[in-house]
Amino acid sequence: MAVATGEETKAIARYIRMSPFKVRRVLDQIRGRSYREALIILEFMPYRACEPILKVLRSAVANAEHNAGYAPSELLITQAFADQGPVLKRFRPRAQGRAYQIRKPTCHITIAVAPGAEDED
Predict the structure, then answer these.
(1) Rounded CA separation 41/35 (Å)
(2) CB–CB of 55/19 below 8 Å?
(3) Measuring CA to CA, which residue among 71, 80, 102 is closest to residue 33?
(4) Helix ranges, the chain (H)
(5) Is the pLDDT of residue 91 over 50?
(6) What is the pLDDT, as a whole number, of residue 3?
C-alpha cells in the first residue's frame, strides 16, 4: 500500500524500554488497518507493548488532525515499525565472584497514518 509521503503524518516514540521483537508482534496486527479498528485491537490484546503503541498511534492521529486537518475516522495506518535502540548493559552477580551480563533492549516505535478510502460493511 503505497501512499505519497506528502499525505502521511507520523509520530515516533524513542527509547522505549522493551524488546523490538515483542513490539513488532503487536505492530504486525495493526499495520494497514483503520484507526478505529486498531484502537479496538490494541485495547483487547494482552501484551505489555500495546500501551506505548497506543500512545504513539494516538499521537500520530492527533498530528494528522491538528497539522493536516484530517478526520480521525478516515485515517489508515500506512507504516508501523519498531527499530532497535541502544542496549542497556547491566551485570548480575553470580557464584564464585563471577559477573553475568544482562542486556536490557530499547526500541524506537514509528507509526505513520494517511487518509484512505474507508469501506463500511
Answers:
(1) 10
(2) no
(3) 80
(4) 20-30, 35-44, 50-63
(5) yes
(6) 37
Q: How far apart are CA 104 and CA 121, in angstroms?
A: 44
Q: What angle do CA 61, 23, 25 make, to 5 degrees?
A: 105
Residues in contact with 54: Cβ distance below 8 Å, sequence separation at least 6, in sequence order: 39, 42, 43
Q: For position 51, what pLDDT does the model report? A: 96
Model confidence at 121: pLDDT above 80: no
Cell of residue 74, nine digits: 478516515
Distance of CA 90 to the CA centre of its chain: 26
Of residues 80, 86, 87, the one with CA closest to residue 111: 80
pLDDT per residue over 14-36, tens digit each?
999 999 999 999 999 999 999 99
- Report the chain's mean pLDDT, rounded to a whole number: 90
**Domains plus CATH for the chain?**
20-115 (3.90.470.10)
